């Protein structure tokens, strides 16, 4: 029985879900997404308990929600500290090694977030095209993915009604993960 591994999986999953929600809040404000969307409302309500106190200390800057960004980084650092000192998944690290691991973990989380968003948005676009109608999840995912997909559409425009820009961007993101060795970073 692998109790430590099971708890490590559970804690990692819970951290990753909440970190992704905080990242989504930051990105939603960056892309100026519809905050009346039910998905946006969920994200706001899920992140407000930790962001309200932080916003009293850290103001926004240039339209960016710096408090969300700081919370994102802090949660990743806490997750790594739990990995290192509670579960001994890594040997103790020096400050420079911890900084590098934090930056790699941030990059991995952002890439995984966009891979998930683009994949689900592409699938939902097929379902929405078949069923018609408004889907708030598809709408918000499209608003998040569009700034990443737009440059790829300039390189390869939709052909015959088929948009392969999601596939091109996903291949590029996976290539970046492989190139920098981010696949095994927590």
Question: Which short descriptors sum up this protein?
Answer:
single chain; 186 residues; mainly alpha; 76% helix; globular
Helices and strands in order:
Elements: H1 3-30, H2 38-57, H3 66-86, H4 95-131, H5 136-155, H6 165-179
Helix pairs in contact: 1-2, 1-3, 2-3, 3-4, 4-5, 4-6, 5-6
Question: Could you describe the 3D structure shown?
Answer:
It contains 6 helices and no strands. The chain has one domain (3-179). The model has no long low-confidence stretch (mean pLDDT 90). The chain has helices spanning 3-30, 38-57, 66-86, 95-131, 136-155, 165-179. It starts with a helix and ends in a 7-residue tail after the last helix. It has 186 residues and is an all-alpha fold.
- Our estimate of the beta-strand percent is under 5%
Write down how many β-strands occur, each being a DSSP E stretch of 2 or more residues: 0
Oligomerization category of the chains in this entry: single chain
Q: Which percent range fits the helix content? A: over 70%
Distance between the termini: 23 Å
Mean pLDDT: 90
Order of helices and strands: HHHHHH
Shape: globular
**Which segments are poorly predicted (pLDDT under 50) over 5 or more consecutive residues?**
none
- Using only CA atoms, what is the Rg? 18 Å
Main beta sheet, described?
A: none
Sheet/helix structural class: mainly alpha
Tell me briefly what this model is.
The protein is mainly alpha-helical. It has six helices and no strands.
């Amino acid at each position: 029985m692998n109790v430590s591994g099971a708890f490590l999986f559970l804690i990692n999953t819970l951290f990753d879900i909440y970190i992704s929600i905080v990242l989504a809040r930051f990105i939603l404000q960056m892309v100026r997404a519809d905050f009346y969307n039910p998905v946006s409302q969920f994200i706001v309500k899920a992140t407000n308990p930790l962001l309200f106190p932080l916003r009293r200390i850290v103001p926004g800057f240039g339209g960016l929600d710096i408090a969300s960004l700081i919370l994102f980084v802090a949660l990743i650092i806490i997750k790594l500290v739990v990995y290192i000192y509670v579960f001994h998944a890594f040997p103790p690290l020096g400050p420079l090694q911890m900084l590098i691991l934090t930056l790699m973990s941030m990059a991995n989380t952002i890439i995984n977030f966009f891979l998930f968003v683009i994949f689900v948005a592409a699938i939902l676009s097929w379902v929405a095209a078949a069923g018609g109608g408004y889907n708030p999840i598809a709408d918000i995912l499209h608003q998040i993915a569009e700034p990443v997909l737009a440059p790829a559409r300039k390189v390869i425009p939709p052909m015959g009604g088929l948009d392969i820009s999601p596939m091109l961007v996903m291949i590029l993101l996976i290539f970046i993960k492989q190139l920098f060795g981010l696949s095994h970073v927590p």
